[in-house]
Amino acid sequence: MSDTLPDTISLIIPAREKDLGGFKVRRVLPVARRRMVGPWIFFDHMGPADFAPGIGINVRPHPHINLATVTYLFKGNILHRDSLGTRSVIVPGDVNLMVAGKGITHSEREEDSAIAKTRHLDGLQLWLALPEADEEMDAAFFHYDADEIPQTESQGATVRVMMGHAFGLTSPVKTFAQNSLCRDKSAGWQRDRRAAERRRTRHLCL
Fold first, then answer.
1. What is the CATH topology of the domain spanning 13-146?
2. Residue-wise DSSP of 12-26
3. How many angstroms separate the CA atoms of 144 and 147, rounded?
4. pLDDT tens by residue, 159-203
5. Maximum pairwise Cα distance, the chain
6. Which among 34, 200, 201, 18 is positioned nearest to 125, based on CA atoms?
7. What is the number of alpha carbons within 13 Å of residue 178 lying toward its C-beta?
8. Cα–Cα distance between 52 and 83 in angstroms, integer?
9. Which one of 32, 69, 81, 143 has the largest count of C-beta atoms within 10 Å of its C-beta?
10. SS3 114
């Protein structure tokens, strides 16, 4: 694969709505014309959605194998539980990394205290294909608080590097491939983003 990318857009993928446990996500990957972007195999945008009291997220226990999931929230919170005994609440700015490896079961819900209120949810969940050598590793779960995720200012934008290396920053989030995941808070950083993409083919900038 080339180490450089053109400054042109090669493919625009419209998101498709999918229902997951009583709430809808907008799924970008996979599609027939693009199964992966680097090692990224799934890209779901959760929300934006409003929940009335008594109604909320209820993704029941289900298995994963040979991959990792990355969860990041803009608004709201989600309670993660898994077969390792993990119980972790993710809030905006945090990063959850669940490594399925040889197999894990998990659920994603909300705490009872949250369900009693009106809430707003907006976030991302991505699936990452593990390298073949790591597909059968032991399952693991990692949580990183928002203040652990590095950020910088670039051309009027605040850029957070959620995974990997970009914009002179290195995220503490564990990686298994040369993948980078970054998120900006405004639209004024296109030139720096293209430069970063040319340096590494597996950046994913949101």
1. Jelly Rolls (2.60.120)
2. ----EEEEETTEEEE
3. 8
4. 899 998 888 899 999 998 766 666 655 544 444 444 444 433 344
5. 52
6. 18
7. 7
8. 30
9. 69
10. helix
DSSP secondary structure letter of residue 132: G
CA distance 184 to 167: 11
Which pair of structure tokens corresponds to residue 42? Answer: 């799934």
Check: CB of residue 153 under 8 Å from CB of residue 55. no
User: How is the beta sheet containing 78-82 ordered, strand by strand?
Assistant: 58-64, 104-109, 78-82, 87-90
The single-letter DSSP state of residue 145 is: -
Residues linked to residue 123 through DSSP beta bridges, in sequence order: 46, 73
Q: What is the pTM of this model?
A: 0.82
Structure tokens at 25: 């996500």
Counts of helices then strands in the chain (DSSP H, E): 2, 17
Q: Are 165 and 200 in contact (CB under 8 A)?
A: yes
For 117, the 3-state DSSP assignment is coil
